[in-house]
Amino acid sequence: MRKVLLAVLAFGLAACGTAGGEEPAEVPGLSVNLGPQQNRVTAVKDDKIAAKVPEKFRTKGELVIGGSAGTAPPLRFYATDDKTVIGVETDIATLVADVLGLKPRLEVASWENLFVGLDSGAYDLGLSNITVTEARKEKYDFATYRLDTLAFEAKKGGTWKVKEPKDVAGKVIAVTSGTNQEKILVDWSAANVSAGLKATDIKYFQNSSDYYLALQSGRIDAYLGPNPTSAYHAATSGQTEVIGNFSGGAAVQGKIAATTKKDSGLVTPVQEALNQLIANGKYAEVLERWGLSDEAVPTSEINPQGLPKS
Description:
Blueprint: E1 3-6, H1 8-12, E2 30-33, H2 47-50, H3 55-60, E3 62-67, E4 77-78, E5 85-86, H4 88-100, E6 103-108, H5 111-120, E7 125-126, E8 140-147, E9 149-155, E10 172-175, H6 180-194, E11 201-204, H7 208-217, E12 222-226, H8 227-237, E13 240-247, E14 255-261, H9 267-280, H10 282-289
Parallel strand pairs: 3-6, 3-7, 10-11, 10-12
Antiparallel strand pairs: 1-2, 4-5, 8-14, 9-12, 9-13
């Protein structure tokens, strides 16, 4: 079973840019299991919460959970066998299923097809670093479980830092299509152009291997994505570094949430399951396991204020 020892500094970056501007606490070195035998943290069924699950889900006896595996660790990715999906998102998904008394079935989809699957009913639940937005709330219900922190990742050793929109003017930056970070980058570029600065040249990649190859070859200046993946990659590759962190919501603190089809009836038991897991410490165990304790939320909320519409 292969393990990777993560540096303290990498995960010390995890809370930068979160609400309040507080400095993150130091995190001890972390040994992460990348093998298919995960020995995940488990929970027990709560009959009262499970009884609130709509009958159509209880009848199946399983919870079909969709998510992307094209992101980098520690979110949702393939184990060393190249077929078992692991990561913090899968751990939280299986914990929720445990509390609801359902067998988790972890499905893999591209980012775009994840929402297609939720719309069609192919997936009961989406756990894939999905940010709550006002636009998405029109079609989906959300139960929050983690703060949304983003990062700019660049080749190691440079002097360029990103602290505000003008810092990306004229730069070539990669981002995943259809994500919240894409919207932020597009908005920043437009604001720069309006101020007489150069536009950002935005490139699109769907797989982490593609944007990291582009970064090392110099075809892009940076990648904008979830902070956990950038912190992990910087720590394990030794070739890149995080050059800027901020909330995924800019002025509004972004929040990551379990996502269900609107009015499916599933969001309330999912939220109650998450709050039980927060209260009994199982949630904290999972975040600590993946070095994401600084992105914890004190309680799960249903459909909180999301990122505004453009």
